[in-house]
Amino acid sequence: MKLLFELPDAEKRIVSERLGNEQILYCTPADLNEKGKKSDGWVVVTRRKILFLEEGRIKKEFDITEGRGYASVSMVGNGILEAVFNGEPQIIARYTMRHVPRYAYIARALNVLSEGREPHIVSGEDENVCPKCGRRLPRGSKVCPKCLDRMSALKKLGQVVKPYWSLIGIALLLFWLVTALSLITPYLYRVFIDDVLMAERRDIKLILFFVGSIALVQSLNTLVTVLRGRVMIKVGSNIAAELRSMVYTKIQELSLSYIQKRKTGDLMNRINSDTNRIKEFIQHQTTTGINQIITLIGICIVLFVTNWKLALLVILPTPFVTVSIRLIWKKIHAMYHRCWKTWDKANSLLQDILSGIRVVKSFGQEEKEILRFKKASRKYADVSGNAEKVFNTVFPIYGFFMGIGQFFVLYYGSQLVLGEKMKLGQLVQFTQYVSMLYGPLSFMSFLPRMFADAMNAIGRVFEIIDEEPEIADTGHVVHHRIKGRVEFRNVTFGYQSHEPVLENINLEVSPGEMIGLVGHSGAGKSTLINLIMRLYDVDDGQILIDGIDIRDIPLQDLRSQIGVVLQETFLFSGTILDNIRYSKPDATMDEIIMAAKIANAHDFIVKFPDGYDTKVGENGYNLSGGERQRIAIARAILHNPRILILDEATASLDTESEQLIQEALARLVKDRTTFAIAHRLSTLKNANRLMVIDKGKKAELGTHDELLKKKGIYYGLVMAQRQMFKVRGAKAGS
Amino acid sequence: MPDTVVKDIEQYTEINYLTSETAEFERTDGGFLSLTTKDGRKYPRVDLYRAFPFTKPREYISVREPESKEIGVKAKEIGVIRCLDDFPENIAKLIEEQLDRRYFSPMIIKINNIKEEFGYYYWDVLTDVGTCRFTVRGGHNIVPIGEDSGRILIIDVDGNRFEIKDYASLDKKSVKKLESVI
DSSP states of B151-169 as a string? Predict the structure, then answer.
């Protein structure tokens, strides 16, 4: 992200007049004035000063060291850069949302400068506009759809297509055949009419010969078309499957931060619809395109050779035809899009009501919901009815006008025939060719759009395939059997680097120690855990395991020695057995039962009719939250990790199952370095030490008793929970 | 229920309504607002939030301590202004000035152009703060406010907001351009 803009000349002069040749460290636009009007403002930062320029004048000037607490505050629809000067909060500049992340960096730099240190703040974030043309880049993509290098995209596709060249060659041959065959039929008609019918040759053998050859050509044509379709489907779906698995493999390799920056739906689209579009492109558009072009050229040649005047008559209206097709399609497309939108609305309303049916019924709101849906449904009926009406009116009429050329041909042709300048068979042949002409023409008018769509799909797919994983093993990896000593050194991290979620965390954990992580939601507890698992890399500082930077331990080694039990237990579709041995597929049955016993899961599992073979997950047996949790614990136990992470493992459980799980957890935690997050502080009673995180910083660290004595944040949280408990107890008692 | 517990709950849920009798707002030199309450407490700076930004922009305004970066400090709500009319005009104006800063969404007066390219809509409009060009992603970021009020909120890719008060009252050309995207 750009933090040092080039000032316009007038401003540059003013700034250099004021500051001499002091080095400008940061210079960014501030596009709103105090009153909220658009204006041409700039913030210029040197080592000593902040200048705020507006409309070519220096409006404000600050000494950086006099200010404290520089911050870019993001409000609704705009942001301000503020700081406290001599105890007085001041607004330095105001800007639209576009610049808010920029100013977050500037504020950080100003805070460093105000302490008299040198800022090393650069932004790793990308600008989200295309550097070439200034267009917005599609979300989560660095490829501008306009400036996409079409040739290199095609080349890449060519690499994937390579193994199928021979098949494609065969398909192309078949294409030529189909075209040739379909051009032969009208010719046969002509000869048949002119040389047999008009010549009045009553030779039954000859008639049979012609009928037979026309039938033969037609059936050959059908046969070859079928063959061609089969070959192309084979090529298309193979290539699509290959691309899909390439994208999927890459997504599995990429770091979580890459995946989380993108919506699941976006990624699914890349794997499914984009590859599908490429398949369509290969299977239909390229091949149909080639076919249509060949046909088009063929027909044109034949037409002009037969009678060039008539041919001109047919060709002349074609530009008009192509243009009008496009116009009408645009209109129809817009109508159907609106249709689709109202349908979508009615649909999501329905889904809403059905999934919330318990709420609707318990508040007795059925009447209202019925009305609401009726209205949406009525609207869809109206809109779609309209669209259908237009479609069904426009297209038949349109078809009629498309055929108007044929009337001319018929009219002039018949005069030619009557004037004996043309034979009847020739005219029939001619009209047949003309009717074959408009198909390819209307197809060609869509070709540019289809081509562009396909190129974009190719671009998007290869963007992922070519992506380098952000989190990768370094060159000098050390295979390491973890003993369990974990150390955080000045760890700073933010999901977006301008907003640090964790700042300067220092912590040393001995092997086998259990650390409870406490803090308000959003304080950064889960982030800390993500860093231990190396789902993300730290922005600054180090995390060491047994003295080794975790970036030097192979990812596979690291994660295979860390076990996780999360709040929302994810069980894959499959049996309980599959789920327990997910991390250790070669575990024996004895080991599995042992793990389940330790997890307090064995007893309830054997009571199921299908025991360990019970199917769970989607469409499977419905397990309770506590049961799922215990299966997850069994999974973690079997995994036998050196470092264990419990993220709100007992949050959503009733008291009884919590006790069972507490028991199971206590067994699991033994002799393992453990990090546990829990909102219910009683869950952390086994922890050796507690770390309180507040606003991304280490606020308190110590044992339960130490922290209580301190009467700080932890004390407040404990008291608040006791209060809650009292209220609940009182309510239950009253 | 024990009395102490009941009292605690009341303390949590009670709304402290601020009126011109109980609260004195003043503009600070830095352009923010300070507040002195009747009980003598002085807040050198307060932040204002609308509880119902669309339906009741002049009512139910939450007056809060500014968010602090310090560890363990939680910003609290000081009180709620039920209606700006509870204050004299000059004070109401001060408060509105602060609110307008926090809630910034230019009103669209005229739509010059909307162009669609590759899933983004490039808008070129005239607003009450001047000409604005912005980019909107897809169709989901054009949101009608309320049912059949004609009021529309548009959120661009960066999070800037633009409003149309009543789209039926725009000129014909603008309406046509708008209808092509919604």
Answer: EEEEE-TTS-EEEES-GGG
Interchain pair A77, B161: CB under 8 A: yes
CA A41, CA A25: separation in Å to the nearest integer? 17
CA distance A76 to chain B (A): 5
Could you tell me where the beta strands, DSSP code E, fall in A510-621? 514-518, 540-545, 548-549, 562-566, 574-575, 615-616
A-proximal residues of B, 81-100, CB under 8 Å: 100
Compute the average pLDDT of residues B41-58.
92
Check whether A732 has a pLDDT greater than 60. no
> Do residues B59 and B76 make contact, with C-beta atoms less than 8 angstroms apart?
no
Rounded Cα–Cα distance for residues B91 and A241 (Å): 68
pLDDT at residue A734 in the model = 46
Q: Tell me which chain A residues have a C-beta less than 8 angstroms from the C-beta of B117.
A: 135, 145-146
Residues from chain A that touch B156, judged by Cβ atoms under 8 A, are 97
Contact A228, A171 (CB under 8 A): yes
Kindly state whether A720 is in contact with chain B, defined as any CB-CB distance less than 8 angstroms.
Answer: no
- pTM value is 0.69
Q: Which of B28, B72, B117 sits opposite A135 (nearest CB)?
A: B117
pLDDT surpasses 70 at A659? yes
The better pLDDT of the pair B169, A141 is held by: B169
User: What is the nearest CA distance from B6 to chain A, expressed in angstroms?
Assistant: 8
Q: What is the pLDDT of residue B89?
A: 93
Residue A213 and residue A445 in contact, taking contact as beta carbons nearer than 8 Å: no
Q: Which of residues 151-180 of B touch A (CB under 8 A)?
A: 156-161, 180
Q: Which residues contact B146 (CB under 8 A, 6 or more apart)?
A: B54, B55
pLDDT digits (tens, 9 = 90+) for A3-51: 888 889 888 888 888 888 888 999 999 999 888 888 899 999 999 999 9
Cα separation, A352 vs B157, in Å, equals: 27
Token pair recorded at residue A708? 């209580």
B106 CA: distance to closest CA in chain A (Å):
9
pLDDT digits (tens, 9 = 90+) for A140-157: 566 676 776 667 777 888
Interface predicted TM-score of the whole assembly (ipTM), two decimals: 0.89
Nearest Cα of chain A lies from the Cα of B169 at a distance, in angstroms, of 22
Q: Are A535 and A541 in contact (CB under 8 A)?
A: no
Reduced to 3 states (helix: H, G, I; strand: E, B; else coil), residue A228 is helix
Q: Does B76 touch chain A if contact means CB atoms closer than 8 Å?
A: no
Task: Write the pLDDT tens digit of every residue in A346-385.
Answer: 888 888 888 888 888 888 888 888 888 888 888 888 888 8
Other beta carbons less than 10 A from residue A146's beta carbon: 14
Which A residues in the span 444-473 are in contact with B, Cβ-Cβ below 8 Å?
A: 456
Q: Which of A504, A494, A493 has the alpha carbon at shortest distance from A698?
A: A504
Q: Which residues of A touch B31 (CB under 8 A)?
A: 34, 90-91
Q: CA dist B179 to A385, A606, B133, Å?
A: 19, 62, 18
CA angle, A612 then A617 then A618, to 5°: 140
A483 inside 8 A of chain B by CB: no
CB contact under 8 A, B31 and A76: no
Determine the distance from the C-alpha atom of residue B133 to the mean position of all C-alpha atoms in its chain, rounded to a whole number.
Answer: 22
Q: Touching check for B112 and chain A: CB below 8 Å?
A: no
Contact A660, A600 (CB under 8 A): yes
pLDDT value of residue A96: 92
Q: Which residues of A touch B180 (CB under 8 A)?
A: 334
Give me the residue from A88, A128, A699 closest to B72, CB to CB.
A699
Structure tokens given for A155: 């080349």
Q: What is the pLDDT of residue A388?
A: 83
Tokens of A60: 């404000």
Out of B100, B135, B159, name the one closest to residue A36 (CB). B100
Three-state SS string across A566-597, please? ECCCCCCCEEHHHHHHHHCCCCCHHHHHHHHH
